[in-house]
Amino acid sequence: MSIAVCRATIHTVRKPTRSHCRVGSIFKKRRIALHYTLTDAARIVGISGEQLRKFEVGENRIDFVRAVKLARAFDIEIEDLAKAVLENG
Q1: Alpha-carbon distance 76 to 54, whole Å?
Q2: Counting CB atoms within 10 angstroms of each CB, which of 48, 52, 63, 85 has the fewest?
Q3: Which is higher by pLDDT, 57 or 9?
Protein backbone atom coordinates (compact mmCIF):
# COMPACT_ATOMS: atom_id res chain seq x y z
CA MET A 1 0.00 0.00 0.00
CA SER A 2 1.43 3.34 -1.00
CA ILE A 3 0.67 6.57 0.75
CA ALA A 4 0.45 9.76 -1.28
CA VAL A 5 2.40 12.63 0.16
CA CYS A 6 0.79 16.05 -0.04
CA ARG A 7 3.25 18.77 -0.91
CA ALA A 8 1.66 22.08 -0.20
CA THR A 9 2.90 25.06 -2.14
CA ILE A 10 4.39 27.71 0.06
CA HIS A 11 3.18 31.16 -0.90
CA THR A 12 5.03 34.25 0.14
CA VAL A 13 2.98 37.22 1.20
CA ARG A 14 3.76 40.25 -0.88
CA LYS A 15 2.56 43.69 0.01
CA PRO A 16 0.78 45.91 -2.49
CA THR A 17 2.98 48.30 -4.45
CA ARG A 18 2.37 51.87 -5.59
CA SER A 19 1.21 50.40 -8.89
CA HIS A 20 -1.51 48.46 -7.05
CA CYS A 21 -2.56 51.70 -5.36
CA ARG A 22 -2.77 53.52 -8.72
CA VAL A 23 -4.83 50.73 -10.28
CA GLY A 24 -7.10 50.65 -7.24
CA SER A 25 -7.58 54.40 -7.51
CA ILE A 26 -8.69 54.02 -11.13
CA PHE A 27 -11.29 51.46 -10.07
CA LYS A 28 -12.54 53.62 -7.23
CA LYS A 29 -12.89 56.77 -9.34
CA ARG A 30 -14.74 54.87 -12.05
CA ARG A 31 -17.02 53.08 -9.56
CA ILE A 32 -18.00 56.40 -8.03
CA ALA A 33 -18.54 57.96 -11.48
CA LEU A 34 -20.89 55.08 -12.32
CA HIS A 35 -22.77 55.61 -9.01
CA TYR A 36 -22.09 52.02 -7.89
CA THR A 37 -21.93 51.18 -4.21
CA LEU A 38 -19.07 48.97 -3.08
CA THR A 39 -21.54 46.14 -2.56
CA ASP A 40 -23.15 46.50 -5.99
CA ALA A 41 -19.83 46.76 -7.81
CA ALA A 42 -18.36 43.83 -5.90
CA ARG A 43 -21.38 41.67 -6.62
CA ILE A 44 -20.91 42.25 -10.37
CA VAL A 45 -17.49 40.57 -10.27
CA GLY A 46 -18.19 38.05 -7.52
CA ILE A 47 -16.18 39.42 -4.60
CA SER A 48 -17.12 41.01 -1.28
CA GLY A 49 -17.48 44.74 -0.83
CA GLU A 50 -14.69 44.61 1.72
CA GLN A 51 -12.35 42.94 -0.76
CA LEU A 52 -13.12 45.58 -3.39
CA ARG A 53 -12.53 48.35 -0.84
CA LYS A 54 -9.15 46.86 -0.01
CA PHE A 55 -8.24 46.75 -3.72
CA GLU A 56 -9.35 50.36 -4.19
CA VAL A 57 -7.23 51.74 -1.36
CA GLY A 58 -4.21 49.57 -2.13
CA GLU A 59 -4.49 47.53 1.04
CA ASN A 60 -4.60 44.25 -0.93
CA ARG A 61 -3.07 43.24 -4.23
CA ILE A 62 -5.36 42.46 -7.12
CA ASP A 63 -4.68 39.58 -9.47
CA PHE A 64 -4.79 40.05 -13.23
CA VAL A 65 -7.94 38.02 -13.85
CA ARG A 66 -9.92 39.96 -11.27
CA ALA A 67 -8.53 43.25 -12.59
CA VAL A 68 -9.73 42.36 -16.08
CA LYS A 69 -13.19 41.44 -14.77
CA LEU A 70 -13.42 44.74 -12.90
CA ALA A 71 -12.16 46.67 -15.91
CA ARG A 72 -14.79 45.05 -18.10
CA ALA A 73 -17.55 45.71 -15.56
CA PHE A 74 -16.48 49.35 -15.15
CA ASP A 75 -15.79 49.93 -18.87
CA ILE A 76 -12.09 50.66 -18.25
CA GLU A 77 -9.53 49.98 -20.97
CA ILE A 78 -6.85 47.45 -20.02
CA GLU A 79 -4.32 49.83 -21.57
CA ASP A 80 -5.24 52.46 -18.95
CA LEU A 81 -4.49 49.96 -16.19
CA ALA A 82 -1.19 49.07 -17.85
CA LYS A 83 -0.23 52.75 -18.01
CA ALA A 84 -0.97 53.11 -14.30
CA VAL A 85 1.28 50.15 -13.54
CA LEU A 86 4.12 51.51 -15.68
CA GLU A 87 4.05 55.05 -14.28
CA ASN A 88 7.10 56.03 -12.27
CA GLY A 89 6.82 57.37 -8.75
Answers
A1: 19
A2: 63
A3: 57
